[in-house]
Amino acid sequence: MTNPRVWSLGLDGATLALIRPWASSGHLPVLARLIDGGVSGNLRSTYPPLTGPAWSSFMTGKSPAWHGVLEFFRREEGTYRQRLNSPQDLDGHSLWRILSDAGRQVGVMGVPLTYPPEAVNGFLITGLLTSSG
Q1: Which residues contact 36 (CB under 8 A, 6 or more apart)?
Q2: Phi/psi-derived region of residue 13, left when phi > 0, alpha when psi is between -120 and 50, beta in every other case
Q3: How far is CA 43 from CA 3, 15, 85, 102, in A?
Q4: Is 123 helix (H, G, I), strand (E, B) or coil?
Q5: Are residues 108 and 96 in contact, defined by beta-carbon separation less than 8 angstroms?
Q6: Residues of the chain above pLDDT 90, percent
Q7: What's the burial of 23, exposed, middle or buried (CB within 10 Å: 0-12/13-18/19+)?
Q8: If exposure means fewest CB atoms within 10 Å of the residue's CB, which of 4, 30, 99, 131 is most exposed?
């Protein structure tokens, strides 16, 4: 039995209501081929429908109420200072962590809130809000 490969593409803020007509009219030929040759579906986002909690839900399969990320930032306990959420703030394991722990090779690129990167069986290139230092 062969090990099937799975590939996922997430486009923040994109909607198939716009992508499908543009793809079928020839404006997005690569996405048209991906849609025609794979599986696609309409997104039902999180509440709140924001980038930070939505991508954290994609990572963990949990709602924001369960993974604990409600925004890009969180208030430091006992102060009014804010700090950036990180993978350590997630209450749950990411899909790539679960797959890595199961011995599967993974590649992750450009996903928000993945800095600092965790060690995986493969590669993880952090995305939006990666530190420049």
Answers
A1: none
A2: left
A3: 27, 7, 24, 28
A4: strand
A5: yes
A6: 80
A7: buried
A8: 4
DSSP letter at 45 equals: -
Number of neighbours of residue 61 by Cβ within 10 angstroms: 13
Cross-strand partners of 2: none
User: Which two three-digit tokens encode residue 75?
Assistant: 């208030």
1-22 core/surface letters (b: 16 or more CB in 10 A; e: else) = eeeeeeeeeeeeeeeeeebbee
What residues contact residue 8 under an 8 Å CB cut-off, 6+ apart?
none
List pLDDT tens digits, range 8-58. 999 998 889 999 999 999 999 999 999 999 888 888 899 989 999 999 999
* Three-state DSSP string of 63-113: CHHHHCCCCCEEECCCCCCEEECCHHHCCCCCHHHHHHHCCCCEEEEEECC
* Rounded Cα–Cα distance for residues 109 and 125 (Å): 5
Q: Which amino acid belongs to residue 57?
A: S
